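Hi,

I'm pasting everything inline rather than attaching a file, because the server keeps stripping attachments. The sequence lines come first, and each chain or strand is labelled.
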Amino acid sequence: MDTHVVIMAGGIGSRLWPVSTPDMPKQFMDVLGVGKSLIQMTVERFGSICPMEKFWVVTSEKYVGIVKEQLPGIPADNILAEPEPRNTAPCIAYACWKIAKRHPDANIVVTPSDAVVFERQRFAEDISKALEFTENSGNIVTVGITPTRPETGYGYIHAENAVEGQICKVMKFKEKPDLQTARSYLASGGFFWNAGIFVWNVRTINAQLRKFAPQIAGIMDQLSESFYTANEKDELGRLFPQCEKISIDYAVMEKSEDIYLIPDNLGWSDLGSWGTVKEHVPVDSDANVAVGGDVRMFGCRNCIVHNDSKGIAVIEGLDGYIVAKKGDNILVCRLSEEQHIKEFSELKR
Amino acid sequence: MDTHVVIMAGGIGSRLWPVSTPDMPKQFMDVLGVGKSLIQMTVERFGSICPMEKFWVVTSEKYVGIVKEQLPGIPADNILAEPEPRNTAPCIAYACWKIAKRHPDANIVVTPSDAVVFERQRFAEDISKALEFTENSGNIVTVGITPTRPETGYGYIHAENAVEGQICKVMKFKEKPDLQTARSYLASGGFFWNAGIFVWNVRTINAQLRKFAPQIAGIMDQLSESFYTANEKDELGRLFPQCEKISIDYAVMEKSEDIYLIPDNLGWSDLGSWGTVKEHVPVDSDANVAVGGDVRMFGCRNCIVHNDSKGIAVIEGLDGYIVAKKGDNILVCRLSEEQHIKEFSELKR
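And the predicted assembly:
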């Protein structure tokens, strides 16, 4: 089996401002305070799947330096730089076309760079199972996370008679639901969070893209001639921005008939907001979370404090707040208002 | 008249942490967000009293560089460095003994470096009046601030039949009172805040120190031989730390019989705490104060936010809080709990 791992690392994580910023987004930050960035934890998670020379990172040009620094084990030639963000379908197509040129039988695991999985052993087993299934059947497998709350921020995947850890057929990909719909998904069972983790053979995904996203596939065919040559960068700069801006879910997953699911309870989180970060870090007896440097809380409850520096953060008398500092920027905001953080940080004074 | 101004600038302003720190205390900071530090504002306030070569600053050795940088007009030789803090009596004695050696008839105004006076014109008139009185009578004059609230953080000066702007005899210096006593002072009238501003002839204060603080005076007599010589620094390092650690109020003012007061309503504040700073900066329609860089408040009331940097401070959903950032340190604290800030910032985690 010729297994490759493609890590998508082009996002900017604007809901975790000020720790995540367009110059240094969350996948490169130690969001959980464990001494490693999220992308470093992602690489570790797949460490048993294949050797480092088969890891690929697709990211924005401006993050290439950060990726090299944080992941020195990944060959520099495997760091693919998007000239501009075009959502996940062009990102995945670029990586898969490029891998196909030298590794035509590759089985590929695609993963985001900024999520966490706490059940690592079980996750590794599921990925191995999915790879074996893909190798034998040629079919696409995606990982579905057993939902723990009626989350409206994720897409869902519907599968009947699903058993945790066992591969089953996908009935339908569902877009982000409203709260009522999300509640009905939880009540009825058979619905799983779409974690954006896919396992496929390179021939299969490229064929599916050709079928359902011919505009992107056409551009990739053109680009392919320059792969691994001195012209690649120029050609990419010319052609990639012409790709349709579309997610892999819309472009392929929702249309394809033949997708399989491995549902499981993996302790997964996209860490998409301060509230979700708070859920994944141990709390003290007052339900507070402190990440980073010297954080001193007095009379606080239900707070998450993130201090990026060696400095002191003194926080007194808050209940249910986020306090985050990175460099010169600070945020103090109720957890209940965190959906506005992006807008607060972008507004001009 | 040979007038000199002595600015005491050795304090560390621990209640204004993190803006005031032992490395860069509040007198050197732009606490009000007006583009000048408090010590620069202090020098301006006395600008009409005497030329810059008659300004003296007594400070800690480690602040000498900051003083030179912030007050380039003051001769370097007039910046007196205390080897260690010994409270105000030794500080004042050193300055007065040194001035006396070359200016035996000097009239001296002593002032803290970290307070503000909003009635500057009136203040200058009062100081001129006090200097004239001292010149003619040889007596010590102190400035008393008409109290506006039963403040327990200041000492008081009692004078009967006091009229604002007119010199009268001091009956008694009073230490910081409890709240009930402070209220009775306000109710009865004739009590004024001790602003630590003194006007005296150098012969008078030195005689008073000789009488009431002979230990300190004796050390100053020894030191005096080295003044303005290459030995001064070494001698100071050897002798100054032996001085009794005592305030000028305890050492002289409370004991002396012959002190005069010029009471006035000068819009004075020692800016000793975030609450007092908030009172002296314009508030917006939600009673918020923002000092410094890019401060964005949403749904906040009665807050003071101090942002030292070019960074963004997003503050949401707070009522009655201090949020302060300087360098790597941040503080979020209820204004009602600000008396604990010193302890919060000193505690080990």
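Chain B has a mean pLDDT of 95.

If the labels don't parse on your end, tell me and I'll reformat.
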